[in-house]
Amino acid sequence: MREGFTSKKRRKTDTKHRISEDRSFNIWYNTLEDDHDYTTLLANKSTFKDDLWKLIQKHTESKKMVKWYAWAASFTILIVAAVFFKLSYKQVFVFQTAFGEIRTYRLPDSSKVQLNGNSQLIYYRSSMNEARRVKLKGEASFHVTHKNNEQPFIVELSDTTEVKVLGTVFNVLNRSYKSQIALKEGSVLFNYSNHHKVSENIMKPGDLIEISKDAGFMTYRHEEETEDYFSWQKGKLILKNISLKELMTMLKDSYGINIAIHENTLLARTASGSLPLAKDKNQLLSNIMDLYELGLKRNFSGRVNNYPKTDR
After folding, report:
1. In whole angstroms, what is the distance from residue 59 CA to residue 44 CA?
2. Strand locations in the chain, DSSP E?
């Protein structure tokens, strides 16, 4: 009895499935247009699959390209940043003054340097992060800031001469005819090499070192007052038994003034006193004439001729 009931139920279910399939088929068939047969639809279906797969591949490749471009851009930025850092690390700074010009500069470590006329100071950015190192041509006064890590400050005058300090005030002259270091405050380690002999001198306030580049010898002495060697900052020169020849060289190097002396015996004449560094060259030459008791006349070439001063 139960088996007959089950069979009858199965037949009823199968009949419903067939009716549902027939109905779905009729709906699908009625939606087809007369000019599309089944083969065409299959072909279109295959083409659609191919197009869809190509689109998926294109989208995937596009994502890969975007990732590649992003990686390449990041790599380029890193390279550019590294090159920029390297160039900035080796960046050179040059301070230069014209003839007769005095200018004050502040270095990255807060040290101050005042350059006399026709002088040049050079340093690398990297040198301010390590041992503070500068190169000087001409004349300059330094006020060096002391560092808590005892970082030294080095002034290079040549390949064989340098001044090494921690925190101090000193004046350095580095011209073609001589080098000179006058210490006002603090302490200085002065290194000088001549004919493979290295000389190290620890300077104290009031000490003065001079190196004659023509003769190649060094003199070391102590003076009670070194303020005179900083006098150019105040627009004057304090001369102490300075020959006219040496003064001529000083004026040529710092102020671009040429003086021609017709009588060579006058070159050895010395003088002491205060010489104002007037901006007017004619006034400056007049001051020199009075100090050295000379008669000076300017010719049309801009040079200066000497004539012995006569009593009136």
Report:
1. 22
2. 92-96, 103-106, 112-115, 120-124, 132-143, 153-156, 161-165, 169-174, 178-185, 188-194, 197-203, 207-212, 217-222, 236-243, 270-276, 294-298, 304-308
CA distance 91 to 108: 13
Measured in degrees and rounded to the nearest 5, phi and psi for residue 72 equal -65, -40
Q: Which of 72, 112, 122 is nearest to 233 (CA)?
A: 112
Residues near 240 by Cβ (< 8 Å), separated by ≥ 6?
228, 272
pLDDT greater than 50 at residue 27: yes
**CA dist., res. 163 & res. 182, Å (int):** 11
Instruction: Give the tokens for residue 103.
Output: 């200018």
The whole-chain average pLDDT of the chain stands at 75
Asked whether the predicted pLDDT for residue 295 surpasses 80, the reply is no
Percent of the chain whose predicted confidence (pLDDT) is above 90: 24
How many CB atoms within 10 Å of residue 277? Answer: 20
pLDDT band at 61 (very low <50, low <70, confident <90, very high): low
Do the beta carbons of residue 116 and residue 139 sit within 8 Å? yes
Q: Which of 161, 164, 106 is nearest to 133 (CA)?
A: 164
Is the pLDDT higher at 241 or at 197?
241
Backbone φ and ψ for 158, nearest 5 degrees, come out as -165, -175
